[in-house]
Amino acid sequence: MAVQADLLELFTGGCFCGSVRYQVAGKPLAVAVCHCNDCQRSAGAPMVSWSLYAQSSLVIIKGKPATFSKSGAAIRSFCPVCGSGLFYTNSLSIPGRVDVQSSTFDCPEAFPPQAQVQVAERLDWVNHLPELPGYERYPGPDKIP
Ligand SMILES: [Zn+2]
Ligand SMILES: [Zn+2]
Q1: Segments forming the whole domain that contains residue 80
Q2: Ligand nearest to the CA of 88
Q3: I want to staple 21 with a disulfide (CB 3.0 to 4.6 A). Which of 7, 14, 88, 137 is the partner?
Q4: Is residue 144 part of a domain?
Q5: Which residue, among 5, 8, 22, has the nearest Cα to 105 in the 3D structure?
C-alpha cells in the first residue's frame, strides 16, 4: 500500500549548467517574489521568486550546491560551477523550511507567485515595466529606444 508521500507529484529543477539537480515533492507551501536588497545583490537581478517547501521535501539528486552566509542565520546555496542561485534557508525566519528559486524549476510557469514581499526595497522602475515597449526577441542594440 502506497503511503501518502508516494502520491505527491515530483517537481525537478537545476542550475544553468546542469551540475546541480534537485527535486521537491508536492506543491509549495507558498510562492512569493522578494524585492529585498539581499536578493537583488545576490541574484544580480531586480527581484527573485521563491517557492517555500519543508526542508524534508527537497532532495539533491545531482552535484553539491555551495553555500554562502553574509550575516546571521541566512544561508544561500548556489551552483559552484555556474553560480546559479538555488536555495535559501534561515533557521530563525523559516525554521525547517527551504526556499527554492522558482525560476530554476524545469517548469517555472507552474509556480506563479501569490504575493510580493519586502516591497519596501522594491526598485521603483519595476512598477513601470508593463508600460515599456516589448519585443518577442532581442531586436538588437540599435532598435531599443
Ligand atoms: Zn551550474
Ligand atoms: Zn529577498
Answers
A1: 4-123
A2: 2
A3: 14
A4: no
A5: 22
Q: Looking at the CA of 65, which ligand is closest? A: 1
- Cell 508600460 maps to which residue? 131
Q: How far is the CA of 128 from the centre of ligand 2 (A)?
A: 20
In a domain, residue 134? The reply is no
Find the angle CA(92)-CA(80)-CA(73) to the nearest 5 degrees.
Answer: 10
- Collect residues with CB below 5 Å from ion ligand 1: 15, 17, 19, 79, 81-82
Question: For residue 77, what are the β-bridge partners?
Answer: 67, 87
Compute, in angstroms, the gap from residue 67 CA to the centroid of ligand 1. Answer: 13
The number of distinct structural domains making up the chain is: 1
The confidence band for 13, taking pLDDT boundaries of 50, 70 and 90, is very high
CATH at residue 106: 3.90.1590.10
Q: Residue 36 domain-assigned? A: yes
